[in-house]
């Protein structure tokens, strides 16, 4: 374990937004910044996501659940609209899609990789 706290700080304002690409699929209008990369699993477990107006992420499953905090804008999950300041915990096995008619920025904690369905 590193004993210097600076090792654990992510300066998100010093990172560029990257297009969201998973398993070779580019999700147009969705961008990501990694906040916490897990070396053991070789994936980011805490991320920022930015949805441009009208962007959608397909129906998917969260094998280990997820946590979402809306930083700005609005996101629609299963006909529920989340606005800035809203928090959502979905339990393991919860399935849904995500869209953002006006755009949004979200903080995601995702313990395990999602499974795209259908």
TrEMBL record:
Taxonomic superkingdom: Bacteria
Signal sequence extent: none
Tell me the ranges covered by the ChrR-like cupin domain, including all copies.
9-109
Which regions span the lipid bilayer?
A: none
Q: What is this protein called?
A: Cupin domain-containing protein
